[in-house]
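hey so i finaly got around to running the thing on glutaryl-CoA dehydrogenase (ETF) from Streptomyces xinghaiensis. pasting the sequence first so u can double check i didnt mess up the copy paste, my clipboard has been acting weird all day
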Amino acid sequence: MSATAAPPFDPRDPLGIDDLLSDEERAVRDTVRRWAADRVLPEIAGWYERGELPVIRELARELGSLGALGMSLEGYGCAGASAVQYGLACLELEAADSGIRSLVSVQGSLAMYAIHRFGSEEQKREWLPRMAAGEVIGCFGLTEPDAGSDPAAMRTRAKREAGGDWVLDGRKMWITNGSVAGVAVVWARTDEGVRGFVVPTDTPGFSAPEITHKWSLRASVTSELVLDGVRLPAGAVLPEVTGLKGPLSCLNHARYGIVWGAMGAARSSFEAALDYAGTREQFGRPIGGFQLTQAKLADMAVELHKGVLLAHHLGRRMDAGRLRPEQVSFGKLNNVREAIEICRTSRTILGANGISLEYPVMRHATNLESVLTYEGTVEMHQLVLGKALTGIDAFR
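ok and heres what it spat out for the 3d tokens, dont ask me to read them lol
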């Protein structure tokens, strides 16, 4: 057996994870990375500082041209990409900013996914091609002011009238894309259980005031949805699902993207710290030459690349049709939690410069505080895993 020399050690890929990817997967990753570098990174600090995403409609159309919207869905103009390809795209988008990845996740993994999986053929044909192209932005109305982790407590109500129309009343809160959406997937209580509705946002009685004064996800549109006697035809209801299994399955798909995306934010922060440690001098030498700094960098690298391996493993399981919701909870819980710690540790290496928007670290850290909460809080995912491990339901 002939000996083969090991390739050089790569500080950006210390485990050689890139070797696990196919040429097509690398091409997807590199395409999204270049787009983010060209279109997002030059402007993101300013957008974040001003609390705006002024070109969201333009970005949506460009992302549609890349095939990044509804990326893993089949047909209706969607790319039909693999779960791993979609995950790699999420990682690169969140390496730019969590708000950009949220735009894509809500569009594809929540609004489009709900219509694709539970909608009628008419609903699919009407909305999915335009959403895949980024011509129409979608949002997903589940969370309410008094119903976050407990969606069964939602108060939004849909009543069926004698002629077959539905009338919706209620409020939704913390809805990404809401103020710019052309269509909303809204979940409401009915006499037969929770149902989903496809709501054109120009329907009388629908409004979506934007939520301001945020200190996280500032380069993202976040809104309240107000439904005041919104009248919809019978064909507006998603026909293929009744009950909370509908919205929860959509959330599971979105959480999968977060497993990858959080590692993008972590990578960006880690690489900023690694570069800084090599150039910042104190006491006559680069701070990367001190033991305490090297210990921080080593610990961050271990958690970062463990997280990427975990995301990769879950992606392969999803592509094989073997991924369970509990495994997605495992990934979301671990990767977001570790990503925040990587950002915080990176900030300590950058010192006072770590709070400056000239570096991405504090922006990623504050964004991840929202990511830690949405699509299931830490506590909810701990209880999902606790139930799976013990067989005992501790939610109530």
